[in-house]
């Protein structure tokens, strides 16, 4: 105990020192990963994703704590036999002495750089400006990868320094195609079920409240999207001859779509659920600024701003196939296709929400218009049971590392693979953490990582792992 010997270093202190000492190496390792343009999209060279997987495997081997480190691939679900996903990295060490096993997840692939003219630094040249490191993947999610590596290094160093033993079980799964649909994710889980089995899963691929306040992400909305084709006529007709008596497909589509929202802009589809939970304050002015509402335009929805973003469904028309203005002859359109994109509240499955929306559309089709639905995509929402011991331990570690209690946050976007993790490993407690902050601009030009956030994220994870190892 420290009261007996005030000069003795506590385990938490040793870990904090090891994290601080290891930070320059962590930033350098992160820079090396950023230099590998591991874009997982089909138009980009997959050799870079393989190179990035090898580099990550090397970093994990270098920690010296794993029984096995492998680069592995799995069959893509729904693709022809033999079509494998991009290489992932799997590292494992067995638990000793009855200690728990923790699975650490991140992904080493990145989004395309996008318009290079929009970048102020080279996308694949890691560049520190002020307290931020710029580059594609500098945050999403190569910083997640390196935060796991750095936390493990710090833990191993602190444990060795104290002359004790690392008994904690660890599994690390670094995916190679998160940015392009995670097509082999479920098969990878099934193929490696025993190696990945854990008491706690830490997914380091989310956001923080700001650079001084951590998030523990406890809710994610799901997603559901499909194309809807509305047909009213067998062929186009002259709008002067038949307009006013024959219903055109655009009229039917506009009337049908207008039934999806009430006068506040809230979703008005029976059967779509909302989640009921409190939210932190979020200023309407911040919403106006962040989402760039132009002067005179009011926000939509009801309830607290964050409940609208985290806990209520939303529906957006994201595309319309209809005659372009350049081709706008004076005709009645026989057919219009729209893409509908829905965010699904935590607590409802994506399939349920889709069924409710399709039933509503069918029930409201004007003039007997014919509706066809196609190109479905979906992913379930996610809600953490925050009563588990791992949530309490993670919140304590974050509070100690950041000096501020974490926000239990929702995310309006979706990480569909988390629902797959919960399904394959129902016993595991899932902690969704991250290295991003509101200025990160993941997926956009000028993506960056705040180096203070990086350090505190590493420290949070190292403290948590250290306590689980000692506990
Ligand atoms: Zn990510």
Topology:
Blueprint: H1 11-34, H2 46-62, E1 68-72, E2 88-93, E3 101-107, E4 127-129, E5 132-134, H3 142-161, E6 169-175, H4 185-191, H5 193-196, E7 200-207, E8 215-220, E9 222-231, E10 237-238, H6 239-242, H7 249-257, H8 284-290, H9 305-310, E11 314-321, E12 331-332, E13 335-344, H10 350-363, E14 370-379, E15 382-383, H11 389-402, E16 407-411, H12 416-424, E17 429-436, E18 448-450, H13 451-470
Parallel strand pairs: 3-6, 3-7, 7-17, 8-16
Antiparallel strand pairs: 1-2, 2-6, 4-5, 5-18, 8-15, 9-13, 9-14, 10-12, 11-13
Helix pairs in contact: 1-3, 1-13, 3-13, 4-12, 11-13
This protein binds zinc ion.
What does this structure look like?
- There is one protein chain.
- The protein is of the alpha+beta class.
- It is built from 13 helices and 18 strands.
- The strands form five sheets. The chain has a six-stranded mixed β-sheet. Strands 11-13-9-14 form a four-stranded antiparallel β-sheet.
- Helix 1 packs across helix 13, helix 3 packs across helix 13 and helix 4 runs parallel beside helix 12 (416-424).
- The two termini are 15 Å apart.
- The structure holds zinc ion.
- Zinc ion binds next to loops.
Enumerate the spans where pLDDT stays under 50 for 5 or more consecutive residues: none
Average of the residue pLDDT scores: 95
- Helicity range of the residues? 25-40%
Count all strands and give the number.
18
Q: Give the ligands present.
A: zinc ion
Radius of gyration: 25 Å
Strand order of the largest sheet: 1-2-6-3-7-17
**Number of helical elements:** 13
Shape: elongated
The rounded distance between the terminal residues' Cα atoms is 15 Å
């Amino acid at each position: 105990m420290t009261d007996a010997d005030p000069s003795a270093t506590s385990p938490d202190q040793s870990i904090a020192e090891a994290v601080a000492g290891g930070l320059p190496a962590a930033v350098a390792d992160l820079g090396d990963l950023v230099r590998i343009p591991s874009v997982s999209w089909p138009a980009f060279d997959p050799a870079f994703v393989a190179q990035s997987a090898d580099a990550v495997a090397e970093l994990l081997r270098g920690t010296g704590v794993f029984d096995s480190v492998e680069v592995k691939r799995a069959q893509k679900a729904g693709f022809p036999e033999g079509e494998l996903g991009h290489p992932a990295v799997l590292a494992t060490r067995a638990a000793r002495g009855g200690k728990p096993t923790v699975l650490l997840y991140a992904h080493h692939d990145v989004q395309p750089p996008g318009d290079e003219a929009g970048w102020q630094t080279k996308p694949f040249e890691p560049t520190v400006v002020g307290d931020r490191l710029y580059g594609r993947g500098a945050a999403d999610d190569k910083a997640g990868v390196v935060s796991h590596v750095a936390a493990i290094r710090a833990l191993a160093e602190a444990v060795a320094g104290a002359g004790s033993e690392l008994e904690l079980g660890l599994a690390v799964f670094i995916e190679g195609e998160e940015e392009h649909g995670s097509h082999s994710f479920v098969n990878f889980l099934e193929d490696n079920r025993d190696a990945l089995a854990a008491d706690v899963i830490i997914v380091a691929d989310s956001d923080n409240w700001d650079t001084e306040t951590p998030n523990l992400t406890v809710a994610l909305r799901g997603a559901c999207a499909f194309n809807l084709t509305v047909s009213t006529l067998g062929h186009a007709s002259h709008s002067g001859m038949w307009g006013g008596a024959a219903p055109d497909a655009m009229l039917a589509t506009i009337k049908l779509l207008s039934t999806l929202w009430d006068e506040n802009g809230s979703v008005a589809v029976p059967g779509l659920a909302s989640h009921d939970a409190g939210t932190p304050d979020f200023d309407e002015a911040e919403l106006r600024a962040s989402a760039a509402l132009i002067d005179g335009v009011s926000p939509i929805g009801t309830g607290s701003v964050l409940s609208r973003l985290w806990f209520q469904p939303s529906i957006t028309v994201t595309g319309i196939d209809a005659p372009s203005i350049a081709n706008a002859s004076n005709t009645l359109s026989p057919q219009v296709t729209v893409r509908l994109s829905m965010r699904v509240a935590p607590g409802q499955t994506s399939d349920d929400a889709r069924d409710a929306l399709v039933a509503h559309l069918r029930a409201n089709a004007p003039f007997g218009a014919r509706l066809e639905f196609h190109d479905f995509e979906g992913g379930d929402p996610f809600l953490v049971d925050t009563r588990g011991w791992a949530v309490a331990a993670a919140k304590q570690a974050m509070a100690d590392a950041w000096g501020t209690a974490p926000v239990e946050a929702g995310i309006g976007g979706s990480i569909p693979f988390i629902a797959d993790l919960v399904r394959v490993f129902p016993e595991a407690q899932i902690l969704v953490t991250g290295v991003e902050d509101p200025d990160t601009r993941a997926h956009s030009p000028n993506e960056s990582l705040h180096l203070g956030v990086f350090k505190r994220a590493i420290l949070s994870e190292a403290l948590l792992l250290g306590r689980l190892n000692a506990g």
